[in-house]
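User: Please work through this fold.
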Amino acid sequence: LFIQAVKVLLMRPQNWPKFSFGAWLANAAPRMHRNKLAAALANKLARIAWSVLSTGKAFDTHKLEIEAV
């Protein structure tokens, strides 16, 4: 399901800045094939989802923006 969602997201690059991972995505897109990029972003989202569910802590988008820079 993550791959499906990411492929839809990749079809709309004008929406990338709306997301906390937009900077990472814009930086990675020119150097990766779109399928590899989809798998990488799906992996990133799955890890975030697992972390939120396992720890019970809220997701901090500010931390992700700092890591993207």
